[in-house]
Design goal:
binds pyridoxal-5'-phosphate; globular; alpha/beta; three-stranded antiparallel beta sheet; single chain
C-alpha cells in the first residue's frame, strides 16, 4: 500500500543525526526544559524571522495558550468572555475551533474560497460589535490572502491569530506564515512539515507580553514554581523532541522543495481531467503542500477513493465534516452562509505526498487515477 506519508524512509535519511541528538539528551538527562528547548526556540525564531518562539506540548496547546495570551494582552484577563466572537473557518481540524472555546470565546464560522482558505469577504460580512479577532488557517500549507485579512483586521481593531499547524515553511509575500499576524501556533505532530517523534507545538509572536504570558501558562501559570498567578497547564516541549526538531530543522528547506516537486509532478500528470480540480497556489505565496488535495466532481469522490484503495493507493478526506456540523460546537458558535465549505467537504480528496516520495510512485498514482476515472 502506498502510504499517505512515508516517515520510515524519511528516518533513514536522518537516522545518524537523530540518534546523536537522542543520545545527547540521554547523556545529560535533562528531560524537562533541557538546553535543547531554548536552543530550538532561538533557532526556529531566527529561521522564521519571528521575535519570540515559545515551545509547548502540542499544536492544540499552542492555539489555546496563544489565544488566552491575546485575551490577557488585550483585556488584562485570562480568558475571553463567552459573548466575545472570534471569526474562523469551519474547514479545518477540530483543534482550531476547540481552542477558541477553550480560550472562552465564541467561534464564528464563515465560508472559504476556492483555495480552501477563509474568505476575506466573508470575514468582513461577519464582523459585529462583539468581534475581537480572526483565526486564519493556512490549510494544506497554502497561505491565506494575508494582505487583505490584515487590512480588514486593522480597520476593525481585531487581532489575527495564524493557525500554522499545516504550514511550517509556507511563505506569503516573502515572509514566513506565522510571522504575518499577531500570534501564531505551529504543530510538530509527526506528519507535519516539521514533525517531531511525538506531540509538540510552538507559539510565535512579536509581542513581549504575549510571549511572557505564554511562558507562564505552559508551566502551570507561574512566573516561577511558587509564584503562581494564573490557571495554567503542564505543556512544555519535551527536551528530546526539541533535540530531534533541531536536527530536522536543518533539512526543512530541502524537504519542502521535494514536496513541491511531487506536487508539480501531480499537477503535470493530472492536468486536463475534467472531473478533477487541482490545487492552486495563492498569489504571492509559497505553498508547502503539507497535503496535495484535489476535488473530484460529479459525486465521484468516494468511488475514486475506494478504487484507489483497491489498487493499493492510500487517500484521505480532510475534512469530511465542517466544524459547524459538529455536536461540540452546537449552541456555542455562530454560523454564516457556508455553501462552498459544505460542497467541498463532499469533493476533497488528499493524495499521498512527502519529501521522500519517488517520481515512480507519484506517476503510478497519476496513472491509477486516470485509469479509474474512465471506469467509474
Ligand atoms: C489546522 C490544524 N490546527 C491544529 C492542529 C492541532 O495540532 P496538534 O495535533 O499538534 O495538537 C492540527 C493538527 O493536528 C491542524 O491540522
Amino acid at each position: 500500500m502506498i502510504p499517505m506519508l512515508d516517515l520510515v524512509s524519511e528516518y533513514e535519511i536522518l537516522k545518524n543525526d537523530i540518534e546523536d541528538a537522542i543520545k545527547g539528551v540521554m547523556s545529560h538527562q535533562q528531560w524537562i526544559n533541557g538546553p535543547e528547548v531554548k536552543r530550538f526556540e532561538e533557532e526556529v525564531a531566527r529561521y522564521l524571522g519571528a521575535k519570540f518562539a515559545v515551545g509547548v506540548n502540542s499544536g492544540t496547546d499552542a492555539l489555546v495558550i496563544g489565544l488566552r495570551s491575546l485575551a490577557y494582552r488585550m483585556r488584562g484577563k485570562e480568558r475571553f468572555e463567552s459573548a466575545e466572537e472570534i471569526i474562523t473557518t469551519p474547514f479545518t481540524f477540530t483543534a482550531t475551533g476547540e481552542s477558541i472555546l477553550r480560550a472562552g470565546a465564541k467561534p464564528v464560522f464563515v465560508d472559504i474560497e476556492d483555495d480552501y482558505n477563509i474568505s476575506p469577504e466573508a470575514i468582513k460580512r461577519a464582523i459585529n460589535k462583539n468581534t475581537v479577532g480572526i483565526v486564519v488557517v493556512h490549510l494544506y500549507g497554502n497561505p491565506c490572502r494575508m494582505d487583505e485579512i490584515m487590512k480588514i483586521a486593522r480597520e476593525n481593531n481585531l487581532f489575527v491569530f495564524e493557525d500554522v499547524a499545516q504550514a511550517f515553511g509556507t511563505k506569503y509575500n516573502g515572509k514566513f506564515a506565522g510571522t504575518l499576524g499577531d500570534v501564531a501556533g505551529f504543530s510538530f505532530f509527526p506528519s507535519k512539515n516539521l514533525g517531531a517523534f511525538g506531540d509538540g507545538g510552538l507559539i510565535c509572536t512579536g509581542d513581549e507580553t504575549i510571549k511572557s504570558f505564554s511562558t507562564y501558562l505552559r508551566n502551570h501559570g507561574g512566573r516561577d514554581k511558587y509564584n503562581v498567578e494564573f490557571v495554567g497547564y503542564n505543556s512544555r516541549l519535551d527536551t528530546m523532541q526539541a533535540a530531534i526538531l533541531l536536527k530536522k530543522l536543518k533539512h526543512i528547506d530541502e524537504f519542502i522543495s521535494r514536496r513541491r516537486d511531487v506536487a508539480k509532478r501531480y499537477i503535470e500528470g493530472l492536468e486536463g481531467l475534467s472531473e478533477i480540480v487541482l490545487p492552486a497556489e495563492t498569489k504571492g505565496g509559497l505553498h508547502t503542500y503539507h497535503q496535495f488535495t484535489i476535488r473530484v466532481l460529479n459525486g465521484k469522490r468516494d468511488a475514486l477513493s475506494g478504487a484507489l484503495k483497491d489498487e493499493g493507493v492510500s487517500s484521505m478526506i480532510y475534512y469530511p465534516v465542517p466544524l459547524s456540523s459538529m455536536k461540540v460546537f452546537e449552541g456555542k458558535c455562530r454560523c454564516e452562509s457556508l455553501d462552498r465549505c459544505s460542497r467541498f467537504a463532499k469533493e476533497v480528496l488528499s493524495l499521498p505526498i512527502g519529501p521522500t516520495q519517488k517520481r515512480e510512485v507519484t506517476d503510478r498514482i497519476v496513472e491509477t487515477i486516470r485509469a479509474v476515472l474512465k471506469r467509474i
